[in-house]
Amino acid sequence: MIDLSTLNPAQITVLGSAFCVMLSMHFTSQLLSQHLFYWKNPKEQKAIIIIILMAPLYATVSFVGLLDIRGSKEFFTFLESVKECYEALVIAKFLALMYSYLNISISGNTVPDEIKGREIHHSFPMTLFQVWLLRTVLNFWGEWIFSS
């Protein structure tokens, strides 16, 4: 057994992080085994499995970030870039999963009946990308540039 009173705070932090990584791996393996055992809806469950695998990846990247051994900074940078790419994949799969739950076709140009004809209000950053505003700004800058 490890005597925690003899460890410095950095070592306790690394041990706690390692415990959390193992806990994350345990729960992830449980969820994965249950999804693989009850494989009823492959399209949705593939997306769910990709989402489930995000937790141990984040835990591993955080653990490697705490380590201070030779080469860990380069490996952490590599893992961080893998994590960012995987995060984009998870967001896309989550959106696809929500579309499949709502029976919305991703490939088709169909709008659900519930939102047809409704005006959609956007908050501040998204209002900058509305078509009429972009046309107004581009027309203004075009006139200003070509008039001089």
Can you summarize this structure?
The chain has 148 residues and is an all-alpha fold. It has helices at residues 9-37, 42-52, 54-66, 72-101, 124-127, 131-147.
What does this structure look like?
There is one protein chain. The protein has 148 residues and is an all-alpha fold. It has six helices and no strands. The radius of gyration is 24 Å and the shape is flat. The model has no long low-confidence stretch (mean pLDDT 82).
Strand count: 0
pLDDT < 50 stretches: none
- Shape descriptor: flat
Question: Gap between N and C termini, in Å?
Answer: 79 Å
Question: Mean pLDDT, rounded to whole units?
Answer: 82
Content of β-strand: under 5%
Number of domains: 1
Helix content: over 70%
The radius of gyration is 24 Å
Give the SSE string. HHHHHH
List keywords for this structure.
6 helices; 148 residues; 70% helix; mainly alpha
Q: What's the arrangement of secondary structure elements?
A:
Blueprint: H1 9-37, H2 42-52, H3 54-66, H4 72-101, H5 124-127, H6 131-147
